[in-house]
Amino acid sequence: MKMILLRRFRVLILMVFLIACSMHIMIDLLPKLESHGNSGCSCPHTPSEQPQSWGKQGWPNKHTLRILQDFSSDPGSNVSSHSLERSPVTVDRAQALGGMEQRADRKRQFIHDATRSKPTKGSRLSVLFEHPLYKKSPPPLTDEDTLFTVNTDIRFDPKAAEDEAWMGEGTVDESSPAGELKAESYPNWLRFHIGINRYELYSRHNLVINALLKDLVTQRITSVAMKSGGTQLKLIMTFQNYGQALFKPMKRTRDQETPPDFFYFSDFERHNSEIAAFHLDKILDFRRVPPIAGRLVNMTKEIRDVTRDKKLWRTFFISPANNVCFYGECTYYCSTEHALCGKPDQIEGSVAAFLPDLALAKRKTWKNPWRRSYHKRKKAEWEVDPDYCEEVKQTPPYDRGRRLLDIMDMTIFDFLMGNMDRHHYETFEKFGNETFVLHLDNGRGFGRHSHDEMSILVPLTQCCRVRKSTHLRLQLLAKEEYKLSVLMAESMERDRLTPILIQPHLDALDRRLHLTLNVLSECIEKEGYSSVVEDDLQENPETDHAHTGSRQR
Ligand SMILES: *[C@@H]1O[C@H](CO)[C@@H](O)[C@H](O)[C@H]1NC(C)=O
Ligand SMILES: *[C@@H]1O[C@H](CO)[C@@H](O)[C@H](O)[C@H]1NC(C)=O
Ligand SMILES: *[C@@H]1O[C@H](CO)[C@@H](O)[C@H](O)[C@H]1NC(C)=O
């Protein structure tokens, strides 16, 4: 009897011990092992610095983590480090990048490159912007044509107005005529908002935009919140001068192509696509993308320490490689496995200037008539009906005015980037139907440089319509002495995170531009020049904003 009890007691002790052991393994050891194998934290941020810095931490490079293998067909690619060498960078930029030991190697390379190829004074970009095609100005603006009437619609928080820091560090150092307009003293983000009109988001040679781009990168971040509703994590940043911006952290390195078997809607958004889209839109002279710049953010100081969002704050952790990581809350991809990690505490991202608050300037959201089905098997109507455009042309607001031509512009813009994700677009409600369409949310471009997705051009092939100004600009950009890829590289060189695109993506832009021009040539051959090309360049005020609403000065 005693023996049995003793034996039972032993068995019990053994059981307890075993349970304790397995609990320990499950709770403590497994996550560590898992994060070694799995965590997105070790995703290399700048491909070029991958070998050195990770080697230093004794982290085998080939473990560049399952997350990369999951999403990239070619994780160990070296392309971008090559492209880095090709891209000439000013000394200025190299200095801006300095101060980070981790980047020392890269910095040396930048300085080296800078001495080799100095930026030419007469840049191609400034030659382009001097071309007559880039000189057309919008018609005189009435109160109906501007988003805000200064001094009536805009009101400030009096608390903000008293604040010394209100004007911010980044205000433009322009020589403004003394006592001219109070607007001169407004922060740049507000001046950007005030400048929005029926025809454009910002004007061509707007110094405020350059100053705003600088603000986006240099303004102190005073608070951070998560943007609700998105499938992927985005942060709303508020600056010292009360400006706000949308931050999309880097989730893909520049050389990771979207795998061919991926659906367009399942790839991550790319921060560099957002930045490149701003430059492309500007070079195409649409000016329908809000100012966006690249910024290196200190995750501890500029996100964790300034957020009032407990839910966000709680998701911060230190990875096994001693990097700061967080994952936030969103519908997909917000978990330890998909954490965003710094290096060790710095993370790249795109910072997009906010448009005016919806309470001040309502926007209308429209379904793109050529949106995809967002279904693995279903096809959209436009995919099966070759005469789909005829139907669209009879449906308001595409039956008159500028809207259809704007959709054609947007189609070309998206095809050049390879963006298949344009399901909706927006306009400012105040301007009714006769206004430009905003090109927001461009994070799904520049996913694949080795493939040209012709289906994106379907609206153009089906409708065979284009603005004359757009057509002429495309032809200009295809010329060897201008060359879209070179202009893009030059424009993006001004960004803090340059190079924004690797060379294969730049080459793809040139290739796709030619494909677009071919489609238009075929259209003209088939239907005749005058029925394809809408002449928006005539000095003809009667057409007013029935067409593009612009005329030559
Ligand atoms: C990357 O480049 C380095 C040096 O140029 C080379 O040693 C290495 O094998 C390359 N890796 C891959 C995956 O191509
Ligand atoms: C980021 O901020 C933290 C906290 O202020 C600081 O300790 C750290 O040195 C910063 N990192 C860099 C790279 O500046
Ligand atoms: C604007 O477009 C809508 C179609 O959504 C249409 O109902 C409306 O009549 C249009 N407005 C004008 C002024 O044409």
From TrEMBL:
<keyword id="KW-0479">Metal-binding</keyword>
<dbReference type="GO" id="GO:0005794">
    <property type="term" value="C:Golgi apparatus"/>
</dbReference>
<feature type="region of interest" description="Disordered">
    <location>
        <begin position="38"/>
        <end position="59"/>
    </location>
</feature>
<feature type="region of interest" description="Disordered">
    <location>
        <begin position="532"/>
        <end position="553"/>
    </location>
</feature>
<feature type="transmembrane region" description="Helical">
    <location>
        <begin position="12"/>
        <end position="31"/>
    </location>
</feature>
<keyword id="KW-1015">Disulfide bond</keyword>
<feature type="active site">
    <location>
        <position position="421"/>
    </location>
</feature>
<keyword id="KW-0067">ATP-binding</keyword>
<keyword id="KW-1133">Transmembrane helix</keyword>
<feature type="binding site">
    <location>
        <begin position="352"/>
        <end position="355"/>
    </location>
    <ligand>
        <name>ATP</name>
    </ligand>
</feature>
<dbReference type="GO" id="GO:0046872">
    <property type="term" value="F:metal ion binding"/>
</dbReference>
<keyword id="KW-0547">Nucleotide-binding</keyword>
<feature type="binding site">
    <location>
        <position position="269"/>
    </location>
    <ligand>
        <name>Mn(2+)</name>
    </ligand>
</feature>
<feature type="binding site">
    <location>
        <position position="441"/>
    </location>
    <ligand>
        <name>ATP</name>
    </ligand>
</feature>
<protein>
    <submittedName>
        <fullName>Extracellular serine/threonine protein kinase FAM20C-like</fullName>
    </submittedName>
</protein>
<dbReference type="GO" id="GO:0004674">
    <property type="term" value="F:protein serine/threonine kinase activity"/>
</dbReference>
<feature type="binding site">
    <location>
        <position position="269"/>
    </location>
    <ligand>
        <name>ATP</name>
    </ligand>
</feature>
<dbReference type="InterPro" id="IPR009581">
    <property type="entry name" value="FAM20_C"/>
</dbReference>
<feature type="binding site">
    <location>
        <position position="426"/>
    </location>
    <ligand>
        <name>ATP</name>
    </ligand>
</feature>
<dbReference type="InterPro" id="IPR024869">
    <property type="entry name" value="FAM20"/>
</dbReference>
<keyword id="KW-0333">Golgi apparatus</keyword>
<feature type="binding site">
    <location>
        <position position="232"/>
    </location>
    <ligand>
        <name>ATP</name>
    </ligand>
</feature>
<keyword id="KW-0325">Glycoprotein</keyword>
<keyword id="KW-0472">Membrane</keyword>
<keyword id="KW-0812">Transmembrane</keyword>
<feature type="binding site">
    <location>
        <position position="248"/>
    </location>
    <ligand>
        <name>ATP</name>
    </ligand>
</feature>
<keyword id="KW-0723">Serine/threonine-protein kinase</keyword>
<comment type="similarity">
    <text>Belongs to the FAM20 family.</text>
</comment>
<dbReference type="GO" id="GO:0005524">
    <property type="term" value="F:ATP binding"/>
</dbReference>
<keyword id="KW-0418">Kinase</keyword>
<feature type="binding site">
    <location>
        <position position="441"/>
    </location>
    <ligand>
        <name>Mn(2+)</name>
    </ligand>
</feature>
<keyword id="KW-0464">Manganese</keyword>
<feature type="domain" description="FAM20 C-terminal">
    <location>
        <begin position="316"/>
        <end position="533"/>
    </location>
</feature>
<keyword id="KW-0808">Transferase</keyword>
<dbReference type="Pfam" id="PF06702">
    <property type="entry name" value="Fam20C"/>
</dbReference>
<dbReference type="GO" id="GO:0070166">
    <property type="term" value="P:enamel mineralization"/>
</dbReference>
<feature type="compositionally biased region" description="Polar residues">
    <location>
        <begin position="38"/>
        <end position="55"/>
    </location>
</feature>
